[in-house]
Design brief:
By secondary structure, this protein is an alpha/beta fold. It folds into two domains: 224 residues, Rossmann fold; 104 residues, 2-Layer Sandwich (GMP Synthetase, Chain A, domain 3), CATH 3.30.300.30. Strand 3, helix 4 and strand 4 form a beta-alpha-beta unit. The N and C termini lie far apart (47 Å).
Length: 389
Amino acid sequence: MAIGHLNWDQLLCQAKSLSDHGGLSVPANASRIEDLPISGPEEILHITKAIAKTNGAILNSSGGTTGKPKLAYTPFHQAMERLLQHWKPLGPGSVLLNLFNPGRLWGAHYFIQTLCEKSKAITVPAGPFTPEEVHLWIETFQEIGINTLAGAPTGLADFAQGLLDTKSKLDINTIIWMAEPWTESKFKTVRNAFPKAGFWCDYGSVETNSIAVNGPECDRDTYHLLEDQLIEPDDHGALLTRIGDGWTVPLIRYRLGDKIKESNCRCGRSDALIIEGRADDSVSLLSALVSTSQVIKLAEQVPGVEEVQLLLTRSKKETSIKAASVFILTFTGSAEPEKVRARILEGVHNLASVVHQYPDSFLSRRVQMLRRVKRTNKVPAVIWEKSEQ
């Protein structure tokens, strides 16, 4: 069942307009949304680039860790007029510490800067801090009255840990997060450091910008679809359609990389949804298809496991870019690696079959810290390594 509702005549008009400007062709007999073609990153790049030649834009890029980077030209307004009608985490009294990495074509830092500008808030574009660096800045942040933080959960947890380590305090009332999901250990760290803060999230992608939002009154991982949009849940990746003006990019049945499911939220608002995970998470391990998200979820359920990451070695024997010869599960926490490995093999039978024949194809290791993407300071769930020699 679709999430949201759009008028068919307006939707069809939008689809024909996009077609006239280089989008996909609209079938002459189209009478429902399922009759319209599915679009992807190529159409987004083509359309946004054409618009940018007239109006200017910020060039952003997603991915590069688990797949090919996708480029998109984002208008400078970043759809703030639409967003702020339904989502207002900031105001004139807000003094925000922007912990997102600047540069390297990552858009989160600049999204927050524009959000502050349109909200008449003060922004402090400092970027991320390691826990060891925080004590050098505490006095400055206290002096200027930082009361709001924005960052990915990894960066927010690092900053919070730095405060906890030095027993320092900042009176934070608002935390804006996005770009990666929470782990329970990171959320606990941030909540311990900032017990009074309300949590706000803007869910979207580099290509689309804002799609859905939540606030302190919502369940943490439940979002509400913004107006004039419709999502068709699909196991191959949800399809997003939007109509009207003021968006960063117009979309007709754009294939998102996430599995999305209709849900309910404690706040009672309509068009609630949850993100179930990536749609393209299956990998061939020595010819057996394995869901990486299933492996990770099973590992996270083992007592003593805090955070999990899969390192995949590409196979030179396979032509597919998603074929691996070795899975190495790394995790932080106190659990014993062999117990974690055994629990996963109990729950993933096709993986167990491979390991029975090739014992070294799946390994488990406890580490002090998981790997991060230098460009974004995020901890990806899956990292591909070079092919075996």
